[in-house]
Design a protein that fits this description.
Elements (H helix, E strand, L loop, with lengths): L2 E5 L7 E3 L4 H10 L6 E5 L5 H13 L2 E5 L4 E5 L7 E2 L1 H6 L7 H8 L1 E5 L12 H9 L3 E5 L2 E5 L7 E3 L5 H11 L5 E5 L5 H12 L3 E3 L5 E5 L8 E3 L4 H13 L3 E5 L7 H9 L3 E5 L2 E5 L10 E2 L11 H8 L5 E5 L8 H8 L3 E5 L2 E5 L8 E3 L3 H13 L3 E5 L2 H4 L5 H7 L3 E5 L3
Parallel strand pairs: 2-15, 3-14, 6-7, 10-11, 18-19, 22-23
Antiparallel strand pairs: 1-23, 1-24, 3-5, 4-5, 7-9, 8-9, 11-13, 12-13, 15-17, 16-17, 19-21, 20-21
Helix pairs in contact: 1-2, 1-7, 4-6, 5-6, 6-7, 8-10, 8-12, 10-12, 11-12
The structure holds uridine-diphosphate-N-acetylglucosamine.
Uridine-diphosphate-N-acetylglucosamine binds next to helix 1, helix 5 and helix 6.
């Protein structure tokens, strides 16, 4: 099994360019099922999760042409041959459930494996189903699958009990071809939702309010093909901001959208890191002054992202003082804590709260990535730790970071990928 071997690294310098957003491209790919015309998606990151979604779309009957060299995907779903998201794919990638809304709208039926428990909590899909039911779908479960059927969806008012990103996306994709108007209240406001809605509107959908908590969708008869460039990945951006900060380096992060990482910027500044916006991108400079701890609370956008919690925690172990981290979005998203503690961190967990002692002398260790962002946190800790850190189960990390090793090495990090290290 491949591993990352990381040695204590110098302060990172130079620049890095951020790839297209994983969490934006996945729903956009699913949305391409809503038309029989060809769609072209550009700024696509070459990631395992994108490969999984390509496989899923092909299984459904779409022609998918990957031109990763040009960061481009062409998707043409002329016919829907199967309305199924099989268990082996949903198990690999939970975002597979995003084909449910488009399949229901386009083919009147979707059969999707139920995502079971996963490393970051149980993660149910009840809100997706509540919304689809309100649009007129009949939903049954059989042998670990959810089957949704509808003969024509009708617009409805849907209040989400919590602003789920996936539920907002699935419901919006189903509602674009429904008869009449749908209003989603307490909708998720993430930039990835705005990007998906921009793509849908280019296809001919009539959606207003994306990026606010109320999204209004006027159903249309049909959608057409469209071309769309995916937004930069704000979680990758935050991860590189923290890579610069944890190594006390100074880096220019190109192709970042500063507005999308405001909470990370604000918290890094509280710790004493200088973050500036320039014409070329974000400059993160942690070379001067003693850095101190802060507290973070994860929340739906525009709050502090849960997907940056573990990386920020790794950073907090290295600064002066102690900080409190509260994970509000997912239960059980502290799988990295054991591994960080094995590297010499001093983090205590009580339910959703973690107390992170700073000033830790992290030491390299054999650790494993339990999930994507937990793995990224271990990489950051490995850059700071003395000695050598070996991270296994890196397939989790490669689900969501394009050319992670190459990008870090380009900034001076001492990290290599070993096939059976
Ligand atoms: C998306 C992101 C993921 C990010 C998360 C929160 C993608 C592909 N993934 O995941 O990286 O960490 O947003 O920002 O975009 N919930 C329910 N019922 C539901 C749906 C969700 O109770 O029907 C709960 C979940 O268990 C979780 C919370 O709501 O506790 C947030 O989940 P959600 O916003 O749906 O996350 P995802 O769309 O799965």
């Amino acid at each position: 099994m491949a591993k990352y071997i990381i040695r204590q690294s110098p302060a990172l310098t130079g620049d890095v360019s951020i790839s297209g957003s994983k969490n934006a491209v996945l729903p956009i790919m699913a949305a391409a099922l809503l038309t029989d015309e060809a769609c072209e998606i550009t700024d696509v990151p070459a990631l395992r999760d994108v490969d999984v979604m390509c496989g899923l779309l092909r299984g459904i009957g779409a022609r998918v042409n990957e031109r990763y060299g040009e960061k481009t995907l062409e998707i043409a779903a002329e016919k829907i041959a199967s309305e199924e998201a099989p268990n082996e794919l949903v198990k690999k990638m939970r975002a597979s459930v995003l084909v449910m809304g488009p399949l229901l709208a386009r083919a009147g039926r979707a059969r999707v494996a139920l995502p079971g428990g996963c490393a970051i909590g149980t993660r149910p899909i009840d809100l997706h189903l509540k919304g689809l039911r309100a649009l007129g779908a009949r939903i049954e479960s059989e042998n670990g699958y959810v089957v949704a059927v509808a003969d024509g969806l009708r617009g409805a008012n849907i209040y989400l009990d919590s602003p789920s990103v996936g539920a907002t996306e699935n419901i919006a994709m189903a509602a674009v071809l429904a008869k009449g108007t749908t209003v989603i209240e307490n909708a998720a406001e993430e930039p990835e939702i705005v990007d998906m809605v921009n793509f849908l509107n280019k296809m001919g959908a009539r959606i207003k309010g994306a990026g606010t908590d109320t999204i209004k969708i006027e159903g249309v008869e049909r959608l057409c093909g469209a071309k769309h460039a995916v937004i930069p990945d704000r979680i990758e951006t935050g991860t590189f901001m923290l890579a610069a900060a944890i190594t006390r380096g100074s880096a220019l992060i190109r192709n970042a959208v500063p507005d999308h990482v405001k909470p990370v910027t604000a918290k890094l500044r509280e710790c004493g890191v200088d973050v500036r916006v320039s014409d070329d991108g974000l400059i993160v400079d942690a070379r001067r002054g003693a850095l101190t701890s802060t507290d973070i609370k994860t929340l739906p956008y525009p709050g502090f992202p849960t997907d940056i919690q573990s990386q920020f925690m790794a950073f907090l172990t290295t600064v002066r003082g102690s900080g409190v981290v509260i994970e509000n979005v997912f239960e059980n998203r502290y799988m990295h804590v054991n591994e960080l503690n094995r590297m010499g961190a001093n983090i205590k967990i009580e339910g959703r709260v973690a107390i992170v002692e700073g000033d830790c002398r992290l030491r390299g260790a054999e650790v494993f990535a339990t999930d994507l962002r937990a793995g990224a946190a271990l990489v950051l800790a490995g850059l700071y730790a003395s000695g050598t850190t070996r991270i296994s189960e890196i397939h989790h990390i490669e689900r969501g970071y394009e050319s992670f090793v190459e990008k870090l090495r380009g900034m001076g990090a001492d990290i290599v990928r070993m096939e059976d290290g």
